[in-house]
């Protein structure tokens, strides 16, 4: 299958990286710069003609794909032409090989305050769940509901039928002011990627989304020319936490814990009752 690369494209003069005993291919200079700053690096193998790399620093993962010749590289996640995330499978295979070692690297959530540009980044996250919640809070989302209501986040693909059913289940509570749903828009196919980007860019995403949910054709159009950087960031957050399906629901409960629900919840009323954090 031919891959679809939804990525940022950067060009550089490649510099050879000293190979380890496993005879790794040359690493792009920007990746070496991350290593010099303390990032861990792992080779994911060759995929569709690309040398694939993962870097881990401060619990954050980045994925790099380097075409033959090393004159450029792609940063992002790779899909095949069915919408399947190739990157997920690559990471899974690496986890099988490295086991707890890779998980330990990804679970190191300390920050060096002297290097932080965001004041919040100077905080030391005590658990991976706190880092995850912070990442999702700072993703690109569309709010449904009133400010001040308890908040629930959900990764939503515009054409995901389970997402549609979940939002329909919770719509009455949203409109009654009992909860605010923040939709972290993603697209797992080229068409839905464009729709998600359009929703993040339109002046009235809430109104358009309700019309889309009500079945109005072209309420959320496919406009490939829309800047997709915001959705790419959301996909990177989703991938970094190994979320592979939509809807993926994350919220902070009344007891302060961070909880995750995969897929359409069976009891939305219980979910709302457990969500205690207000915006």
What does this structure look like?
By secondary structure, the protein is α+β, with helices and mostly antiparallel strands. The chain has 2 domains: about 5-105, no CATH class; about 125-275, 3-Layer(aba) Sandwich (Glutaredoxin), CATH 3.40.30.10. It has 9 helices and 10 strands. The chain has helices spanning about 30-35, 85-100, 100-105, 130-135, 160-175, 190-200, 205-215, 230-240, 270-275; strands at about 5-10, 40-45, 50-55, 60-65, 70-80, 140-145, 150-155, 180-185, 250, 260. The strands form 2 sheets. Strands 1-5-4-3-2 form a 5-stranded antiparallel sheet, sandwiched between helices. It has a 5-stranded mixed sheet with strand order 6-8-7-9-10, with helices on both faces. The radius of gyration is 20 Å and the shape is globular.
CATH topology of the largest domain: Glutaredoxin
Q: How are the strands of the biggest sheet laid out side by side?
A: 1-5-4-3-2
Q: Tell me about the biggest sheet?
A: 5 strands, antiparallel
Mean pLDDT over the residues: 78
Q: What percentage of the residues does DSSP assign to strands (E)? A: 15-25%
CATH architecture of the largest domain: 3-Layer(aba) Sandwich
Distance between the termini: 44 Å
Radius of gyration using CA atoms only: 20 Å
Number of helices: 9
Number of structural units classed as domains: 2
- pLDDT under 50 segments (min length 5)? 5-22, 100-125
- What is the CATH domain class of the largest domain? Alpha Beta
Cα shape: globular
Structural class, please?
alpha+beta
Multimerization status: single chain
